[in-house]
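Escalation from tier 1.

The customer reports that the assembly of two entities below gives different structure tokens on two consecutive runs. Tier 1 could not reproduce it. I'm attaching the input and our single run for tier 2 to review.
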Amino acid sequence: MPGLAAPHPAVTLSQPRELRGGWVLPGSHCALGGAMCSREVEAALLRLEETFSASLAHVNTRILQPLLLADPEPWEPRGREHLQLLQQLLRSSQQLRQLTEQSLQSLLKRLHQPRTTGLEALPLLGSADGVLQVHLEYIESYTSCLVAQVFQQVAKGKREHWLAQCRPLQKYLAGMSFEGSVDAVLGQALCQPLAQHLQQYILLLLRLRDTLRKHHPAQELVINAITLYGNLQSFLQQALDQAVATQALGHSLSSRLKDALCTPGHRLLQDSQDIPVTAIPLRAERVLLFDDALVLLKGPNIHSFDLRLVWVHPVQDRCMLRVVTPEDEFSLCVRDPQDLVVWQWKVSQAVCQALRGKKDFPVLGAGPAPSEPPACRSAAYTFRTKGHLCRATYEGEWYSGRPHGKGTLKWPDGRNHVGNFRWGLEHGFGIYLVPKAIEDKFDCYKCHWQEGTMQGYGICEYSSEEVYRGYFQAGLRHGFGVLDSAPQAPQPFRYTGHWAKDQRSGYGIQEDGNSGERYIGMWQADQRNGSGVVVTQAGICYQSTFQADKMVGPGVLLSEDDSLYEGTFTKDLTPEGKGKITFPNGFTLEGWFGSGTGRGLNTQGVLDTAALPPDPSSTCKRQLGVDAFPVESRWPGVYGPFRVFMVAGCPGELQEALLGFHVQRSRVPRRAQDYLRCERSCLEDEAGRMEDALEELLCHREPAALQRYLQKALNSTWHPLGKLLRTLMLTFQATYGGFGANKHLQGMAQGEVKQHARELWAAYRGLLRVALQRKGQALEEEPEDAETRDLQVHRLMLPLVLPSFYSELFTLYLLLHEPEDALYSQGIASLSLFPDSKLLEFLDVHKHLWPLKDLRLTSNQRSSLVRDRCFLSATECLQKIITTVDPREKLEVLEKTYGEIEATVSRVLGREHKLPMDDLLPLLIYVVSRARIQHLGAEIHLIRDMMDPVHTGGLYDFLLTALESCYEHIQKGGMRLRRLPGHWDLRDLS
Amino acid sequence: RMAIRELKVCLLGDTGVGKSSIVCRFVQDHFDHNISPTIGASFMTKTVPCGNELHKFLIWDTAGQERFHSLAPMYYRGSAAAVIVYDITKQDSFHTLKKWVKELKEHGPENIVMAIAGNKCDLSDIREVPLKDAKDYAESIGAIVVETSAKNAINIEELFQGISRQIPPLDPHEKGNNGVICMHGGKPPSQAHRCC
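Tier 1 run:
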């Protein structure tokens, strides 16, 4: 057959080799058994390999290659598939022969040089895995051909030709039958050599084992090889059985079903026709278990379930198996409990194998007890129906038929969710992308989900480049949130406030990026509605009532020159209708206003020029919004989630959803590819960390330790208290910070700071309660009495909280007390011209109290001209008042200043001296004027507002009042100077 | 347990009439065991029993110089009582007193208790203000009046007892009005005193 010599250029082992007689030991000798020496067994092995190799070569040349050439260019798909399967089989067969040749070579080498070549050099002993792999591949490709009925198709109608081809193989294949169909004969010819070879191998290996001494180094190798070949034998048998069953299945199916189910990759493992089982409630006629799918047949329909996503649970006390798949659940019922065991076992094994992606080796039953398939799996699946998941592909972790764990959902319309799932729904943190009509634009939600909807804190970057940071409920913006417009938007804005059902609703602040105008007030359905205060960058400030984004009814308008208008006015801030203007000098104009035809203001009214100067508290110092927005109900959206968190017992895993992301303070600029990255730092063990925090809380309850703990907690970006404070700072800056800072908001601001201190104290108490509950204890003094609470709030919490709000708050005080502070500065400036002794004299300080000893003079100085020497210690002490923001510490500075004055006086007098106010006040004025503290008026008022009310009437109140009276006195000096015309002479004043 | 009421008292009067001497004398025999912090002779406290209450006087001195008069409202705001002192040897000081009374009536806290102290009664031989004038005047304005000597400790206690008696007893359900702060037992703040 010259034409068949080399059907394929890659085929090198196409010619059968003649047996090498010299080394052949007589077969009869082998059969004798008994005590063969190791050499003899190896010789027998050699012969066996030679026979196998030869038979493989013959099979190749006489059967496989001709089979391949039977229809080398098939036009129908099935033919192409068959050709591929045959090519695969040829490759496997060649590998098998190569391996056999290798084994042959090493056996030969060993026979020649037994000393240098150990037993482990034999591939069948030394590289068992490789041997196994080659065998498994051959078995796989062979059975695939069987299932696809390749031989039957190719050899159709040419029986005699193929039988003739097979006949010479008889020499190698004992017991080969030529009866039956041609495909059966061909099948035998391709399988029999391997089966026989395995069997004889095992026998020889057993003998080899017996020849080896007990502790021979190769002993274990040989035993392993015996097991391996034994297992291979049963594997082959099983594979053949499955292949035959799969092939046979075709006979009982319609050709359409057969084409769908009997594919070369498929193997039938169990058929409900063999062990009856019915599927409820699907009423399938037949249940088929394949190695990759569970198939239910119902009429012409095939329900196929990927085994990787099939979970089976036996139903207690009933002959029933519950089958759970991503979209269907059904039961398999059997009559006989024994059958149930078989089905359950087979399905479980098949699921395990499908998950591993390969068949069990050793085969079922050969290994240890079968393992249960894992409940948690990782797989991809495209949903057909099932609500919002319809047509979405989920790839990720599953649990009992449902997405559970981490995963990715992709919808065909481009939507995409990456995150955590629970029981089939988005739950926990997730990133959700919604593509927009414009190319490459997405709405990107990075937020927390609960049972399939956005719930809790999140960040949404809209395709419009607007960014929302805040809370969601049922997928909509709800609660507190900040919305920033696109940076380049024509009407840039930032809204900081409350939301309901995706719309601005409740108390909120919106700042217009262009005009700088800031609306502080109530909203409804995205419109200004209710009380509102508007602050403009020009310094105008008004309070009015809004309805559907429009001002209605009268309001209060305060202009930057401190004139006041009460009445109705237009949105251009022009009085219109009934109203009253109060001018800074006290004149009032009351009547009807109108813009008239020309420019300017038309009015009909009464101008009162006899009125007294207006009450500052109703004009220049008027505070807006305090009553309209009660401080207790101003920020429920910020405190609310914290309360929910505490009521839930501070679950660590909910912390982020309820209190916002953990943001590490880093100033790394964002890059384009960071688009999907979230500004949050993931924490591995949230629950554990929360537990530690609560534990720590319990260890720090004594005042000093508590103060340290709170300080740390409030500064932490992770701690619940720190997070709450940071959100409050955000709202505070939005309301009072920046260019919109207006003196008429000082009242709101200071009330808010105190309220925040109260709420943070309540928050601390809440955490403490939870921490104690976890230990099975209750909080003592519950509820806390109002007095203790106020004390803790003012003494402990306020000083800790104040620094976070101080710069905005102090700015408001500065603005509010600007005119007085200006006068005071003038007073200070004029007093600083006086030499020390002149100033003491000017202030009527008794001569005997003058600390002239402190004046150390150089030769060219005169005591009367020295400045800034007397009471230096007190002056320097007082200057420290601006080094702290804590009102209590400021008061302590004041007390020390007093101590310094008294110490200086006592030193001068040479005895202890208690200063009455008649002496103290002038000295204090002296010290204050020398300390030259800027904005003292703002300082004093801030201290007084933030002072613990328990001090009212007490020592600190007295000291502060004394300081305030000095301030006033110096201011009056400044005022007097202002009235002095032109240059003034020091002598006039002294 | 006795309730402690804090009573802010301000001292008014010309410089040199002995305002702070009266308070120094009053405070000298301390009822308290722990000495309260003071600011020289300018701010002092003393607690005295009155009925079933304790009255803690928080006494604020003021500067008597004419040029500081305008600062006085800052000191007397929120006061429960004012002690207005004149020197019986100086008619001018009695004149100033009248001015203070007038101002308090106009700008002072409502219901402020006024107590007039004619100091330096040990110098009655050089007296310029007759006791009767003071008494008549006090009666006309509904004030307590007493002649005192800080030097000889005459009528000092009586002066403050008089004030205590004039303070309306506390409505148990109401706290702190008219500059009166009360502590119902409970947790006293750090500088409040427990009764003994």
